[in-house]
Amino acid sequence: MNALFSPPRWWHTLKREWLLYHLGDPAFRFMFDEPPPNEWVSLDCETTGLNTRTDEIISIGAVRIVGNRIMTSERLELLVRPERGISSESVRIHRLRESDVAQGLPIDDAMKELLHFIGSRPLVGYYLQFDVAMINRALFPLLGQGLPQAKIEVSALYYDYKFRQLPAYRQQDNADIDLRFATLMTDLGLPLREAHDALNDAVMAALAFIKLRQLRGE
User: Fold this and answer.
1) Which of 100, 147, 201, 216 lies 20 to 30 angstroms, CA to CA, from 13?
2) Has residue 15 been placed in a domain?
3) 124: helix, coil or strand?
4) Domain tally for the chain?
5) Is residue 120 part of a domain?
6) Hey, is 79 helix, strand or coil?
7) Which has the minimum average pLDDT: 41-45, 76-80, 101-105, 109-113?
8) What separation in angstroms does the CA of 174 have from each of 50, 65, 78, 163, 178?
């Protein structure tokens, strides 16, 4: 959102107080604390499908970012036991079979571990909206609300970076920019790990985030 149209500070304060008042479990008030300076959490989920209303999370990968460092020693890697089965189509993508997740955590326990790992840190991800939608659906029975942390979309940062490089006439034409993850990583000169592994995807999104911040002079 353009800063000119950003809600005023009092609106954010009012929203925070409203969310805290309606928080289903006060043990998670820490999510609303002031985030540690210059820290983020890169996040990715693997799921049984792409329907945010009916499909389920089966693995979660997350890693902390501090400044320009990815704290691989401070990572989270969870398998989640779904209530329903895993289709053969989704197995071909993430290679997680029902036997692989049979001993995984119940979704409520996985959400609690994830929230404690994230704390109040802003979230980073590639097409993060999908992962957040899946997590929020799992959180509502626990908290009555979704993730309150700020969210940073890597593909949007990359689009902004590429758009600013275009000549003025191309910007006016709303030039198409390839936002595929492999294209993004290759263009930024970053290594590609094996995709559709939650932790690998979280680490790659963190690499892209750090590189884009450097390119923006942050």
Assistant:
1) 216
2) no
3) strand
4) 1
5) yes
6) strand
7) 101-105
8) 28, 32, 40, 9, 13
Tokens of 73: 């020693």
Q: What does residue 193 show for φ and ψ, rounded to 5 degrees?
A: -90, 175
Instruction: Convert the pLDDT of each residue in 203-218 to its tens digit.
Output: 999 999 999 999 988 8
Q: What is the CA radius of gyration of the chain?
A: 18
**Which amino acid is it at 181?**
F
**Cβ-based neighbours of 117, under 8 Å, separated by 6 or more:** 41, 62, 64, 76
Q: For residue 9, is it within any domain?
A: no
Written as six digits, the tokens of 181 are 């993850």
**pLDDT on residue 2:** 41
Q: Which residue has the tokens 């997680």?
A: 96
C-beta of residue 23 within 8 angstroms of C-beta of residue 147 = no
Question: What predicted TM-score, i.e. pTM, was given to this entire model?
Answer: 0.88
Q: Quote the tokens at residue 32.
A: 């609303």
Which residue is associated with the tokens 């009555």? 144
Is residue 11 a part of any domain in this protein? no
For residue 56, what is the domain's CATH number? 3.30.420.10
Q: Contact at 8 Å (CB) between 43 and 62?
A: yes
Q: Which residue has the tokens 């799992």?
A: 138
- The helix or strand, by DSSP H or E, that contains position 9, with its residue range, turns out to be helix 9-21
Q: Left, alpha or beta for 99 (phi > 0: left; psi -120 to 50: alpha)? A: alpha
Q: How far apart are CA 165 and CA 194, in angstroms?
A: 29
Structural domain boundaries enclosing 82? 28-215
